[in-house]
Automatic annotation (TrEMBL):
Record-stated family: Belongs to the ThiI family.
Catalytic activity: [ThiI sulfur-carrier protein]-S-sulfanyl-L-cysteine + a uridine in tRNA + 2 reduced [2Fe-2S]-[ferredoxin] + ATP + H(+) = [ThiI sulfur-carrier protein]-L-cysteine + a 4-thiouridine in tRNA + 2 oxidized [2Fe-2S]-[ferredoxin] + AMP + diphosphate; [ThiS sulfur-carrier protein]-C-terminal Gly-Gly-AMP + S-sulfanyl-L-cysteinyl-[cysteine desulfurase] + AH2 = [ThiS sulfur-carrier protein]-C-terminal-Gly-aminoethanethioate + L-cysteinyl-[cysteine desulfurase] + A + AMP + 2 H(+)
Protein's UniProt name: Probable tRNA sulfurtransferase
Keywords: ATP-binding, Cytoplasm, Nucleotide-binding, RNA-binding, Thiamine biosynthesis, Transferase, tRNA-binding
Pathway: Cofactor biosynthesis; thiamine diphosphate biosynthesis
Organism: Heyndrickxia vini
Keyword check for Repressor: no
Keyword RNA-binding: yes
Amino acid sequence: MKYDRILIRYGELSTKGKNRNHFITHLKRNIRGVLKEFKDISIQGGHDRMFILLNGEDSEPIMEELSKVFGIQSFSLAVKTEKQIEEMKEVGLTLVKQLYHEGATFKVSTRRGDKSFELDTNDINQAIGAYILTNLEGIKVNVKNPDINLIVDVRSDGVYMSSEIIRGAGGLPVGSSGKAMLMLSGGIDSPVAGYLTMKRGVKVEAVHFHSPPFTSERAKQKAIDLAQKMAGYNGFVKMHVVPFTKIQEIIHKQIPEGYSMTATRRMMLRITDEIRRMNNGLAIVTGESLGQVASQTLESMIAINDVTATPILRPLISMDKLEIIDIAKQIDTFEISNLPYEDCCTIFTPPAPKTRPKLDKMQYFESKVDFESLIQEAVQNVETIIVSSENKSREDAFSDLL
């Protein structure tokens, strides 16, 4: 018997009450986006379940894509039957036979969403279980740790039978919690911060600072490659590449050395906030972890945050480096981040940056330079590209359509 559909379970979305449709709509849109290459499938979104009708498409690559979609608690290959116990027995036996090997054990797990069905949960388990024991020689029951778990889901429109539950990515559908700008460097931390933010339903656009000739095209491509990995969780990432050379040179020449790192971060935040405003974002995301480097002390954060009232999301703030690396490996960004190409956060790095910068001093030093005109010039010359999960990048000629 060939499975004809994939059953998707929502998990956290089930607790959203009257707002559930909002989240389901985003989930369905995101699933349709990552599965757009599979032309024959159809998607049916229900109140507490979603189904992908395969219509002959290969289930393996579809399930691989689904494993990255936030908002899915779990999913299973399934077969739909009529609400007839005899048909349920036959289908159950066929599914278990397909997985059976010598010495294998099984159990039947029934969920009866349709309370009007003539048999209760125990009756269904016993009826199907007894039929399998009678017709499949050698198989035994093990209700605690079976090799095969036959799942029977009795719904109002039919019975869905499956034999394996695959864990999904969890979280909330990307886009259901609004949009934010991710400050994406070439390092380990910011892609992880972007991943965790997307997992809470926030759509991210990346802002990358590029300072040629101090940073190379290879460094820029490294950031694009990181964005491509993140695009795998939502189909594409809109990426804004900011020309930052002139501002960094001015900071290097005119801001006292100990405050140059703080000034650099303040300028990056001001530019990112301007791009956020122009693209209707609601927050800014950074990969900061408290105490990791000089610009990530609480005093530094106060001095840097001073330039905006926009919410700054720092999903890594309490993590240590090893925890961050574990996630980077899990989402396949670690090796890219480790490539030895410089980025603008590491050039002009002072030997002794202030770890407790004074806000009034910082404001005084900046007041001596017309940074506003430099910021507007940088924003006007931003290069915006769309990075998709299939193609690394393409020009933003059609970005307004997205």
